[in-house]
Amino acid sequence: MKKKNLISVVGPTGIGKTKLAIDLAKHFNTEIVSCDSRQFFKEMKIGTASPSDEELAEAPHHFIGNLSVEEYYSIGQYEEDALKKLNELFQNHDTVILVGGSMMYEKAVIEGLNDLPEADIENQEKLQNIMDEEGIEKLQEILKELDPEYFGVVDIHNHRRLLRAIDVIWQTDKKYSEQIAVSQDSRDFNVIRIGIEAPREELYDRINRRVDIMMEKGLLDEVRGLEKFKGLTALNTVGYSELFKYFDGEWDLDFAVSEIKKNSRRYAKRQLTWYRKADDIHYLQVGYSQEDYVQLIEYILTQIKLTKQ
User: Fold this and answer.
1) Mean pLDDT value of segment 230-250
2) Do 194 and 128 belong together in one domain?
3) 135 marked as part of a ligand binding site
4) Residues at site: Interaction with substrate tRNA (predicted)?
């Protein structure tokens, strides 16, 4: 019998996960664990839409702004740290909230990642040379051919993740997507997944508006202050890499902002592809009513009750 419950709030970027997570945390008088890998970094508040100080004050949050961009932090380390934090929180709470759109990081918490081989130095050097000579597009092409399923969900602009996946495939002769798939039975808590969804056009409009709001809040200055770190993995991400190109004189500002919007929409499309494959997510429509929210609470309580029978 699994007595503790983890409510995981998922959905594409810009859909409203933060607000729902806070509402649920307040209802269950509990705390929130973030699995948004970009919000770990304290220097990237605006471009990652980290919860505001007011939102953070509404419910205790963990793994928000807890690292510097200069620190390397692996998904394996996050899995270990998040499970340790959950064990601590379950000492005082029967239910805890997990929230974030980083698909693999949610998976690391609710299912776990298989033991994968350490990086092979020769493979890493070979792949680095390929990228230096032919660009990240060549790595994308290699991964797509080797493992189309993982290619469909990975952040294809994050070269470290591409290198890691290809390296593991080369070492094991098995698809990376298959190797990171394990059963939820490996966890001693009950998982209830809640999603927020919206019509594609409405979602894309929300994403575009959110980028405009980020710019109004000072994203340009935030990125300018991080320019000396632009070679770091944490900053090789949407909202930052585009503006670095503006600072380098490659793009004008309007084009850079339009690229942020385009790449954010592309990332949302990948998230939707990932979540669509799951059959255990209970969905709310964006802009849900109070009645919808009450029904959601009833659903969650029913799921909790079922695990106690």
Assistant:
1) 95
2) no
3) no
4) 102
